[in-house]
Amino acid sequence: MRKSMVPNLAMAGCLAVIAGCTSGSVGSRSGGPGGNPYGMFRCDGGTAMEVRRASGNAIAVSAPNGESIVLPASPAGQRARYGADAYALVIEGRDALFMKSGAMPLNCRR
């Protein structure tokens, strides 16, 4: 297996695990299925993250590492899991988990 494929396979595995851990039957006003995923989050280590609406089912994220990224809903049409390329974001109520391939997941809270 080529070395460049390893991070992509690791992210795909993380997304598959996360998809199985979230429940599609629970909703809340502050995130999760049918809820509002937008707002400011305070993250571990004193960092912050802002989530804003983008086009379609995507969100715009000012990530804790300073990057600005757009993540589509994954799978399309839901409002708790977002991911693209090396990034994933899962929002459940007041909690969010921000993941970047090759880095430790970061816990955030509203």
Automatic annotation (TrEMBL):
Entries under InterPro entries matching the protein: MliC_sf
Gene3D superfamilies tied to this protein: 2.40.128.200
Signal peptide: 1-19
Keyword annotations: Signal
Coiled-coil regions listed in the entry: none
PROSITE patterns for this protein: PROKAR_LIPOPROTEIN (PS51257)
Domain of life: Bacteria
Protein name as it appears in the record: C-type lysozyme inhibitor domain-containing protein
Species: Notoacmeibacter marinus
Lineage: Bacteria, Pseudomonadati, Pseudomonadota, Alphaproteobacteria, Hyphomicrobiales
